[in-house]
């Protein structure tokens, strides 16, 4: 019925909606036979293959908007992938990743051959009973990749082909776009849906929070930032004035010379376990790296002996959850706090959180959508992937209790202070998704309030040595998912290898963003972790039909 209504309405303008879609679709044709899978966070591949995908995700976003009667977001980015790749992420009304139920529709539209596109659209419309007369609105953002310009135009074409209103924000970090969508759909209660609105909200909260930290020296206010030659660097520069010198930074890899994510950025630093190129760091100086769309962050420093120390998402989760737990105790609030991690979480972090901090820990599958949903089940859910993607979610009830306490005239100073800190902390956090800039400011504030140096933070627990490997040669890329996880005997082989090492753990999974299999190993020493990672990758190579030469030992 909804389909018929769509046809009737558009007839007045001469062209039916579907004729319009067909017409525009001809400008963004799908290469016949090309099949792309919806990955961990949307479609991601070489930018040359993505024009039709972008157009069609514009269509899908318009449908999702009609379906939810709310603004939907489309972000053109491939995050930490190399510059020649690109990708697309869809954002649901409250600023979260698009619901998994719609991933199926995304795949359906993406892979429909040219002549089957209208039928695929009709299927979505019918299955969701979408009223095609409903108004629709889509926010669009893009990262700094050269291909993002024309690809975001393709998204806009898709949006307007279905008569939806498209608002193109141009260059944004991924978390900024998530923020805008949430602001819009909460009628400004979450903040103002503009870039300045974002900077103002976060900067004000940071300035309020750091008022609670006494005697901050200039050194403590200063951080070295690796912008991964991406959008995060541009955003941070724009934010500078709003921070009123309460936070100062030296920005490296700001995109003026280097290539996006090349030998720099959070993913490089985490996986390679070494500092990015292009950052001039002195011993003991606090440094951090964003990834290509600024939704991840890791910290690090070199000690006086020149040794590199990484503070990843696990260390960040520990710092933040410890801080929040202390504030809850001071405020006398019995709210349940939990930390959500993935299999990549260092074994030491999990043990520390559970045994020493007595915080509940949940482990879920890789990918923000899984962590985000699990975190929503608690009063306060702190979620971080080891790779540095994460944030904190406060339930509505928790936020209300904190607000009531902060304005209660009958409480003592200690409680009032803790409640105010919690309130400002909530305002500083981007609860829609992990946000490198928001996380960075929160970490800086927590270190200042607790009077911790980066060395003291690092010493909270000691990481087990670990190694991640991803090798394009290791496995046939077209069928990576099943062949990595299901060859008979692979898990048994891994189990047997793990037994050979002390305190060890290892797993393999097909990447959802690249054509590789990822291998993770940890053990009591770096040599053991490296050896185990190598042995497991050889097992994958042998049992999962690896291509190219056999993986070589690390180092
Ligand atoms: C994406 C995910 C990230 C995950 C990573 C894993 C989102 C927004 N991002 O970047 O959470 O850690 O993929 O990559 O969901 P992999 O599947 O290639 O290992
Ligand atoms: Mg990213």
Automatic annotation (TrEMBL):
One of its GO terms (molecular function) is phosphoacetylglucosamine mutase activity. The active site is at 79 (phosphoserine intermediate). PROSITE patterns: PGM_PMM. Mg(2+) binds at residues 79, 291, 293, 295. Residues 486-536 form the Alpha-D-phosphohexomutase C-terminal domain. Residues 193-298, 312-450 form the Phosphoacetylglucosamine mutase AMG1 domain. Substrate binds at residues 385-387, 509-513, 518. The keyword Phosphoprotein applies. Its EC number is 5.4.2.3. It catalyses: N-acetyl-alpha-D-glucosamine 1-phosphate = N-acetyl-D-glucosamine 6-phosphate. Binds 1 Mg(2+) ion per subunit. Belongs to the phosphohexose mutase family. This is Phosphoacetylglucosamine mutase.
